[in-house]
Amino acid sequence: MLQITRSFAIAGAVVLVGSLAACGHNRSAPAPQYSGGYQTAPAYPNNPAGTEYGRVSNIEVLQGRSQGQTSGAGAVIGAVVGGVLGNQIGKGSGRAAATGVGIVGGAVAGNAIEGRNNSQEVQGYRLSVQLDHGGYRVYDVSSPGDLRIGDRVRLYNGQISRL
User: Fold this and answer.
1) Residues 6 or more apart whose Cβ sits within 8 Å of residue 19
2) What Cα–Cα distance (Å) separates residue 34 from each residue in 16, 63, 85?
3) How, if at all, do strands 152-156 and 136-141 pair?
4) Residue 74, class by beta-carbon neighbours within 10 Å (0-12 exposed, 13-18 middle, 19+ buried)?
5) How far is it, in rounded angstroms, from Cα 2 to Cα 5?
6) Strand partners, 62
7) CA distance 1 to 17
8) Taking every pair of C-alpha atoms in the chain, what is the biggest distance, in angstroms?
9) Please, what's the b/e burial string for 58-67 (b: 16 or more CB within 10 A of its CB; e: otherwise)?
10) At what angle do helices 73-87 and 2-22 cross, to 10 degrees?
11) Per-residue pLDDT tens over the stretch 112-155
12) pTM, full prediction
């Protein structure tokens, strides 16, 4: 009878760990990488080599989620809860094993839950520019400033300037 109880305790611990692992970290889309930028054009536009001109053809809002930072409190609380629940299973060495598994599984689950609750929205903009010579450029920026669709722009060295 004692052997059957230990088997159930071990099986229960495996199921508990598997269930807690399913609560683990969910990967989200990577945060947008912002390249280029926006600045106002000088009063007289220079025309150095590599300068391109065009019109803003589209401004798209980019949204994603960044994973929040964890303080460790979620892991500690999860470990305590997991340890208490694990200690309710079995007797003797089976109880000790279930307690250990509960502590580890609870810490992982608590940390994942805290990270998910601390995640934040990340927002940026994708500017699409139709070039005068027929090409097309796309820039990811943190703010479009006062650019609007249809505005004439100058592109030089990764910078967008309204004309």
Assistant:
1) none
2) 42, 12, 46
3) unpaired
4) buried
5) 5
6) 124
7) 24
8) 91
9) eeeebeeeee
10) 160
11) 887 777 666 657 889 999 999 888 899 888 888 889 999 999 99
12) 0.41
Tokens found for residue 30: 């990577």
Q: Return the SS3 of 76.
A: helix
**The residue to which tokens 């997991």 are assigned:** 82
Unique residue bearing structure tokens 């509960």 = 102
Q: What are phi and psi of 69, to 5 degrees?
A: -80, 150
d(CA 85, CA 79): 10
For 2-23, the pLDDT digits (tens) are: 556 666 666 665 665 555 555 5
Confirm if 2 and 94 have CB atoms less than 8 A apart. no
Measured distance CA(42)–CA(44) in Å, rounded: 5
Please count the residues of the chain.
163
